[in-house]
Amino acid sequence: MKRVEEIYWLRFYGAMAVFTFHLIDRIELYYVENTGLDLLRIPSSLGTPIFIFISIFLFSIRYGEEVPKDFLARRLKYIMVPYFVYGMLYLTAEYLRVTLGGEQVSYFAYLREYLLFAGWHGYFLVVAMQFYILFWVYNRFRLWEWLPAERWLIPASLVSMAWWGYFRWYEIEPPGYLHWIAPIGWIYLFFLALLIVKYYPDIRENRILREFSRPIWLAALLVFLVYLTFMHDIEYSSKESWIIPLFAFALLFAMPKLLGVVAPPLVRKVNEASFVIYLAHPLFFSAVDLVGWNISLPLWLYVIALAVVGMGGSIILSHVVNRADWSAMLLGRRLKLV
Fold first, then answer.
1. How far apart are CA 208 and CA 154, in angstroms?
2. pLDDT digits (tens, 9 = 90+) for 269-294
3. pLDDT tens-place string over residues 301-311
4. Residue 142 burial (C-beta neighbours within 10 Å; 0-12, 13-18, 19+)
5. How far is CA 73 from CA 77, 87, 136, in A?
6. Residue 214 gets which letter from DSSP?
7. Beta carbons of 160 and 52 less than 8 angstroms apart
8. Who contacts 67 (Cβ-Cβ below 8 Å, separation ≥6)?
9. Residue 243: closest CA among 46, 56, 35
10. Looking at residue 338, what is its pLDDT?
11. Among 204, 208, 216, 190, which Cα is nearest to 255's?
């Protein structure tokens, strides 16, 4: 398959967005809340949608309608095994932290919260696996005849916006992240990816993609989101209604401009380790916090430590665990870039 340089840039952005979003969480939790940090949350909220979009885009452009027989088995091994391994690591660490603090808690309750209800940042893996299954079903049973992407992109986007809006409006909080892992909130990404592949590389041939790639849409929405930020009337998450138009406008604006722009070594290095960066960086953040609880760190040093230890540790871990197939399967496979 021909290299799609835009995907390297998008995956790099996605990895950095997730990393930055969680870094800001730590700063605001332990040091200071600031409107400038809130503004940074707007672009950093796009990390999870980018990864889902990339998966469907690459599968569609690589396989088309001819999905290999081992497609689901292979993804199940390399996606869901790390989900359970990292889930066990995070839930055990949280259980120990709470019990050492003197609280009486049930380990089974943490097992249920983290693994059954996907109540940790690895919920993304459950979402991804559902879309891998959807992609297989969509092509295996020729669903494109009844659900063409061009016809269903806008209705799917409205459904996703309504899904997130419903839970926000009524302040409903199901156990764990159950409403986060439901594919309804992410279904717009499926049809968006399929439609872009159909017209790729000149996506502006399609009237919908051409219209929404105009910068005026993106600029107007960003102005509105900045206004809401200063009014303190916005929630920052990839699970918000405003994410759907922001992601679509930003993606359609960026992809034609990134067409053929060669990714430098740093971008490719982050791409290779992106899966482990997504999964493991909070572990390294916690190591920095452990030091910070015993030694008073100024904010500037804390931020540098989080960035260096979190990113550097994740990349090193990616290299170490990928020396053997079994450890890569357990802790995150490194991407092989062409």
1. 9
2. 999 999 999 999 999 999 999 888 78
3. 999 999 999 99
4. exposed
5. 6, 21, 11
6. S
7. no
8. 59, 135, 136, 139, 140
9. 46
10. 67
11. 204
DSSP class per residue in 1-43? ----HHHHHHHHHHHHHHHHHHHHHHHHHHT---HHHHHHHHH
Tell me 113's DSSP state: I
Angle of CA points 286, 287, 290, to nearest 5°? 85
Dihedral of alpha carbons 87, 90, 91, 93, sign? positive
Residue carrying the six token digits 């309804």: 184
Cβ atoms 122, 86 nearer than 8 A: yes
Distance CA 249, CA 316 (A): 35
Q: For residue 53, what is the enclosing H or E element?
A: helix 47-63
Dist CA 241 CA 221 (whole Å): 12
CA-CA distance, 210 to 215, in Å (whole number)? 11
Q: Judge whether 322 and 334 are in contact, CB under 8 Å.
A: yes
Tell me the residue type at 296. S
pLDDT at 337: 83
Dist. CA 282–CA 278, nearest whole Å: 9
Please give the model's pTM, rounded to 2 decimal places. Answer: 0.96
Is pLDDT at 25 greater than 70 in this prediction? yes
- Tally of CB atoms within 10 A around 297: 19
**Element housing 324 (H / E):** none
Give me the pLDDT at residue 203, please. Answer: 96
pLDDT band at 295; cut points 50, 70, 90: confident
In whole angstroms, give the CA distance from residue 248 to residue 161. Answer: 12
User: Counting every residue, how long is the chain?
Assistant: 338
The residue type of 78 is Y
3-class SS at 120?
Answer: coil
